[in-house]
Specification:
single chain; alpha+beta; Alpha-Beta Plaits; 3 domains; 3-stranded mixed β-sheet; 5 helices
Length: about 200
């Protein structure tokens, strides 16, 4: 499932907000005594939006409740999908590399992630490394997850990662900075037998 582009997300959010603002503001204005146009959904402060006849018109029809439930379920699933795509951190597709000639080059984000993860896995005591680039293409940031062997000191692993893998990735992509959020996890091991 691909994430909704930011412009579409912002336009949809702005449109929903505008519709809700106009409807809510007009209902409030009419409720406070402002005159409404003849085509508007209600006439004055004592008028209801839906009459009792309109609210109960289809209640006894056999198709009514399944349709209402299906529509509400579709709206709920769409809202949850939208929320999941907005909340998920997006992976950086490409990194802009300054080549010094004014044109620049583009490096695939996935290639830099793989190179950084392989560099980190070469460090002593690192069992597995996972890297995800976030941020903007001209100012990337890295999220690194390291799975450490039980004997490894986390402080040493963090210093080695900063001094070697992150520095190498930053220098090879000619970046001024490569901030990183690092999560360290240790491999579980069984109890040792003492004799």
């Amino acid at each position: 499932m691909r994430a909704v582009p930011r412009t579409v997300d912002r336009m949809l959010l702005g449109l929903v907000g505008l519709v809700l603002f106009v409807l809510g503001g007009s209902v409030l204005a009419v409720g406070l005594g402002a005159s409404a146009p003849s085509w508007w959904i209600h006439d004055g402060p004592h008028d209801v939006l839906l009459s009792a006849a309109e609210r109960t018109r289809w209640r006894n029809a056999g198709w009514w409740w399944p349709v209402v439930i299906a529509v509400l379920a579709a709206v709920l699933l769409s809202a949850l999908w939208w929320l999941a795509t907005v909340a998920r951190r997006r992976r950086l597709a490409e990194v802009l590399v300054d080549t010094g000639d004014g044109d620049g080059a583009v490096l695939r984000g996935r290639a830099l992630e793989i190179a950084l993860a392989q560099d980190a896995e070469r460090m002593d005591g690192v069992e597995r490394a996972g890297v995800r680039l976030t941020g903007r293409r001209d100012a990337p940031a890295a999220r690194v997850r390291l799975l450490l062997a039980p004997h490894v000191d986390p402080g040493t692993a963090l210093r080695d990662l900063t001094a070697h893998a992150l520095t190498h990735a930053r220098d090879s992509a000619n970046l001024t900075a490569l901030p990183a959020e690092v999560h360290l996890h240790s491999v579980g091991h069984g109890a040792e037998r003492v004799s």
